[in-house]
Specification:
Organism: Hypothenemus hampei (Coffee berry borer)
Protein name: THAP-type domain-containing protein
Oligomer: single chain
Number of helices: 3
Helix content: 25-40%
Number of domains: 2
């Protein structure tokens, strides 16, 4: 059974030696609500968090990258493409020594925005990569089995020709040769 008690941090539950809590401090509560990352989530008085390994003033600091828990509002997560065309670096020579190239990069444009991949796109890209790797492995396996099959067919053909030659020379009788050929 679960026993409930009230503390200054929120509702606490003791279950098998573990304690659970959802902070009542407004700032900490907002941080934890953002970390839970559920659409329109508002914790109730009975809402709890695992508090076994946390201090009283603990805040979430770990980014969870599993698809189920990806934080889509984080602007640092998932930057993959730039909307404007990328300018290539140009080699320029300074006047002091024309033999030493100096690389310059394009200036940073403040209006440049980044395209973010959604968690579902990231998951699909990961699955595509896994399927491509699996396809390569399966293709190699198919090719290996095809070669093995070709070798075995070649061996069977040569054995059949040997048996037919032995039948012609009367080394083995006709019935024995037919029995051996039927087994191929």
């Amino acid at each position: 059974m679960t026993s409930w008690s009230q503390t200054k941090f929120g509702a606490v539950s003791s279950y098998c030696g573990e304690s659970f809590v959802f902070p009542k401090d407004i700032e900490k509560r907002k941080i934890w609500i953002n970390f839970v990352n559920k659409l329109d989530f508002m914790p109730k008085k009975s809402s709890v968090l695992c508090f076994l390994r946390l201090l009283q003033n603990a805040l979430p600091t770990i980014e969870v990258n599993r698809l189920k828990y990806v934080r889509t509002y984080n602007p640092l997560l998932g930057r993959t493409a730039i909307r404007e065309p990328v300018q290539h670096e140009k080699e320029t020579y300074d006047e002091a020594g024309p033999s030493t190239p100096v690389c310059t990069s394009p200036p940073n444009v403040p209006g440049r925005t980044l395209i973010e991949d959604s968690p579902s796109k990231k998951n699909l890209k990961r699955k595509i990569k896994e399927l491509e790797e699996r396809d390569i492995v399966k293709s190699k396996k198919i090719r290996k089995l095809q070669k093995n099959n070709w070798r075995q067919k070649k061996c069977i053909t040569s054995l059949k020709s040997v048996i037919s030659e032995l039948k012609k020379k009367n080394v083995i009788c006709e019935e024995d040769g037919n029995i051996v050929l039927d087994n191929f």
